[in-house]
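Example pasted here:
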Amino acid sequence: MQFEIIPVTPFEQNCTLLICPTTRESAIVDPGGEPARMIAALERLNATPRMILLTHGHLDHVGAAPELAAQLNLPIIGPHHDDAFWLDALPQQAQMFGFPPQVAFSPDQWLEHGQQLQLGERRLEVLHCPGHTPGHLVFVDRAAGLAQVGDVLFRGAIGRTDFPRGDHAQLLASIRERLFPLGDAVRFIPGHGPMGTLGEERRTNPFVGERRWG
């Protein structure tokens, strides 16, 4: 799987273009803002967008989704239905964080744990990993050893759980039971900051790694 990470919004959120190298079909993951940059990147990479994927409903991950969907005639897919309340609250989120006004929306398709999505010749597996938000999803290309983890896991850190319906214990369980079993060699693209590997986080992450838990 080819990919390009495009940090957007004042929160430097990692919008990611996932691209099948054979067909050049692309998924736009978590377009939080600055849609013109994503369109320009698609053109530069000779990629054809097929879908917008959302890991969860926080504004910095979804803010440009409706505009891109309308401009490019794309379906919005994800997150899990348990994040519907976050998408319903987009106007309030925008006001709270000083973003331009937003309109609530629902995706064209909610996703469930274990579903699979086809992107050209690549297959993405859907993992429901609640904790940061109740409906948070992770998208995994097992053949490529690549996971798009949103705000579940970061290099040396984990997602916040102090937002409404966040759950610290649930987040730790999601990481240990659904991410780490994917394998140490799997690279992950977080919602913010640099990429890492699951093995490094399993060994050294101060919140969920073996050095903390022994």
Summary: The mean pLDDT is 96.
